[in-house]
Amino acid sequence: MAITVGDKVPSTTFMTMTDNGPEAVESDSYFAGRRVAIFSVPGAFTPTCSAKHLPGYVDKAADLKAKGIDEIACTAVNDAFVMGAWGKSADTAGKVTMLADGNGAFVKAVGLEMDGTGFGMGHRGQRFSMVVKDGVVEQLNVEAPGDFKVSSADHMLEAL
Prior knowledge:
By secondary structure, this protein is α/β, with parallel strands linked by helices. It contains 6 helices and 9 strands; from the N terminus they run ββαβααβαβαββββα.
C-alpha cells in the first residue's frame, strides 16, 4: 500500500556522494525538524528526468525555499556514484541534494516502486514528489505511468 498524506515516512537509508565518498543518510534524521521537498525519478540521466524534472527543481529552488521549504532532494534507484555525477552535470550544488536509493529501499517502503524490467531498467521508483514536514507527508503527488505533470516543481509551487 502506498504512503498517503499524514503518514510518517518510513525509516530507510539513502546514500549521498561527498568529498569523502558515499555516506549514509538516515531518513529519520534527514526529515526531522524541517520541511523537505523530495522528488523521485525513474532514473538518473534518463530523458524526461534530465531534461525537465531535475532542472525544474534546480531552477525553482529559491522559489520553493521562499515558500517554506528548507531542503530539496532528488532520489532515484541509482547508486551514489551515479547520483553524484548526475548532480554535478546538472549543477545541483546548494540547490538540490542528490539522495541515492540504490537498492530501492525507500520506494519500496513508501509503496511507490515500479517494474521497469520491460525497458531493461529493473525495479525503480515511480515518478512522484512529496513535501515532508518533520517526518510526516504533507503533500503527495504521484504521476500516472508515462506522465510528467503533478510531480514537477511548478506543480509543487502552486500547491504550497
